[in-house]
Amino acid sequence: MPEAPDLEVIKDYLNDRVKGTVIEAARVLRPTVLRPLAGNLAEDLPGTSLELFRREGKFLLCQLSGDRWLAINPMLTGAVQYCEPKARVYKRTSFVLELDNGMELRYLDDRQMGMVYYVDSEQLDGIYRLEKQGVDVLAGQSFDDFRAGLKKFRGEVKGVLTRGSFVSGIGNAYSDEILFAAGISPFRKVGTLKDEELERLHRQSRIVVEDAIGVLRERVGDNIHVKIRDFLKVHGKGGEPCPVCGGNISQLNANQRLTNFCRRCQPGMLNRN
Ligand SMILES: [Zn+2]
To answer: CATH code at 197?
Structure first.
């Protein structure tokens, strides 16, 4: 799932290269992911310019001319590709925008679980998941606000972080990284976290995301549709040695969600009840 670090880098890339271009044609190949509330993409989009790209939590927004927006919620496997027209069209490509700079902007989605809304600004405000997002992980929320905000939530800390209504922009991978950096077990109930643990969680949420953005800026290049995760410390590293204590990194796979953590560095009972 693209999370705040991935989307920040993609957003900046698109603002550098695609902002200001005009759509010459739009081709819909697989409509499953589309929510065209403001009209028909193929008919409406030609002549429209791409004015600005913005990230909101785990959404990528593209403001178009004429009070129109594309709001992309990539969910697990959605991706945006920027390429020359001759580049092979992946089988799971949903739509293609042909731009007046001779390039193409495509949306692809392996599992077709993402959602791409084509809306006006009033409809944009009504998109459920967008509207319900919590404070962005990079918004610089104070510790006091962070602690007060968390009091409204119950359950395991990983679930609260990824749901997006407390802090937005964090998904499965970066929640594992943040909890590892903070030394907190993903299964701890948020109500049991002490102030010093909350302080570490608050601090590391921002540090882990900012560090990842730094790494991704160096490495993503033009392949913005390819997710880079190999530099993470625990997520996707089950069975490998913990970079801090050398013990084995644990792995749990539940509901198609991989959770990795170090039992020694992130103590706490594994209690799923
Ligand atoms: Zn460890």
So the answer is: 1.10.8.50
pLDDT tens by residue, 183-193: 999 999 999 99
Above 60 in pLDDT, residue 271?
A: no
The alpha carbon of 252 and the centre of ligand 1 are apart by a number of angstroms equal to 16
Q: What's the 97 CA to ligand 1 centre distance in angstroms?
A: 46
Residue found by looking up tokens 């921002």 in the block: 206
Quick one: pLDDT at residue 273?
Answer: 38
Under DSSP, the state recorded for 247 is P
Q: Is 2 a catalytic residue?
A: yes
Q: Give the burial string for 39-78 (b: 16+ CB within 10 Å, else e).
A: eebeebbeebebeebebbbbbbbbbbeeebbbbbbbbbbb
pTM of the complete model beyond 0.90 = yes
Catalytic residue chosen out of the listed positions 11, 58, 92, 158: 58
Q: Which of these three, 131, 153, 170, is where a domain ends?
A: 131
Specify whether 35 is located in the same domain as 152. Answer: no
Which residue blocks in 67-127 are alpha helix, DSSP H? Answer: 121-125
Instruction: Determine whether 3 is an active site residue.
Output: yes
% residues pLDDT > 90 (the chain): 91
Over pLDDT 70: what percentage of the chain?
Answer: 98
- 14 in the same domain as 121: yes
- Kindly state the DSSP code that residue 64 receives in the 8-state scheme: E
Q: Is 206 a catalytic residue?
A: no
Ligand 1 centroid, distance to 182 Cα (angstroms): 12
Among the candidates 98, 131, 164, a domain finishes at 131
- The tally of domains found in the chain comes to 2
